[in-house]
Each structure stands twice: as structure tokens, then as C-alpha cells.
Amino acid sequence: MAHAHKLEIFRGLLKFKSNTQKIWGVLIFLSIVTAVEVVLGIFKPPSLVKTSFLDMKLLNWIFIILTLVKAYYIAWDFMHLRDEKSSLRRAIVWTPIFLVCYLVMILLFEATYIYDIFKNGFFAWNF
Q1: What pTM does this model have?
Q2: Where are the domains of the chain?
């Protein structure tokens, strides 16, 4: 028995007539998010570069969050997670998000430690 896929995105805010239109809609959404990342990466607004949150620039946090949004949406739409039961969706989506956050935290702590060692320790910057 064929399973009919939902032809809507953003929890029903945009509805499409065919799968082709939906694919184009998803492509446009992912392209916009990628374009925002590229523009922020090229221009690097000084307010985002100077502002720090948890020992990392706010611009880097924006990149991480936008990347997680794209990964979640790709899994949600192209892997058809929206058609699954909520417990399976949570198991598939939330586990990698928590793992990515944990790995980012580890990298931040280690990077801060290495930076402090080179800055205040016995080693000198030799670049």
C-alpha cells in the first residue's frame, strides 16, 4: 500500500500541490539559510564578532545553530521523520543535537585551556 506524503512545510503554513513544488520550496528554504550563513561569514558584523557567549563569539554560535536547523530540517523532510511517531522522531533528532552540543562544549573547554596555556604558560605563540 502506498503511503501518501504530506505536501506541506513549516507545520502546514505552506502547502504545495505536488512533490516537485514541495522539493523546490524546501530547496529555497535551505538556500536562504545557507545564504544567511555565507553573508555572515563574508561580512562578519563587528557586533557579532566582539560579543562573546560561553567563551565563543556570538557569530560562531549563530553558525552552529543555523547548521543544526538545516540538519534537522533535512532529516525532518527528506528522511520523512514528520510521518513517524513522536517517540521515534525524538530519538533520532534529539540524540544528535545533544551530542553536538556536548562536543561543542568539550571543544570550547579544551580550546580555552590550550589558549590559556599558550598565553599565560611556559609556551609562546610561535606562528
Answers
A1: 0.70
A2: 16-120
